[in-house]
Write a structure and sequence with these properties.
Layout lengths: L6 H6 L2 H4 L5 H12 L6 E8 L5 E11 L6 E8 L1 H8 L1
Antiparallel strand pairs: 1-2, 2-3
Length: 89
């Protein structure tokens, strides 16, 4: 797992801890259109920090399923290290 943590650690982890460049308030503002029903998906790039301190660039696609009980917020993370390296050459 790219976050280098156990499932138990993952269930107790706060999302903003894994993204040091994004503050908790920034994430709330970013997700607000999802939570209010204004958007079906939010996609953004950031840097992810693993539990062991390793960092890598990532693209994150987030969807919110308000009709589920309990509500579900799904984040799919893509490591874009290779894509960025190809763009730099």
């Amino acid at each position: 797992m790219k976050l280098e943590c156990t499932f138990q650690q993952l269930t107790q982890m706060r999302l903003h801890v894994t993204m040091p460049a994004q503050g908790n308030g920034d994430l709330r503002a970013l997700f607000q259109p999802l939570l209010s029903g204004g958007k079906r998906e939010v996609v953004f790039e950031t840097t992810i920090r693993s539990a062991k301190g390793r960092s890598y660039p990532a693209e994150i696609c987030v969807q919110y399923f308000a009709d589920e009980v309990p509500n579900i917020l799904v984040a799919i993370v893509h490591d874009v290290s290779e894509r960025q390296q190809l763009g730099a050459t």
